[in-house]
Design a protein that fits this description.
Length: 77
Amino acid sequence: MSQEVSTTPPDDDLRAEYDETVLKNGVRGKYAQRYAVGTNLVRPAPDVAAAFPTEEAVNEALRLLLKVAQSAVPHAS
């Protein structure tokens, strides 16, 4: 089944409440580097992601793995 392609151009007009004089000096990616420093996002491989239905399930599994790993390492006295 093929999907029809729309020939009408997208409506790119701004809403009336936006002041174009304020928006014209915008800088793309102005805060991207600062944002990237403060984040730690990891994208799992598709096969790994399929094993976890939610973000909380991933966190729970990783916490359990950390607990097991920490208990397996003997502490220095």
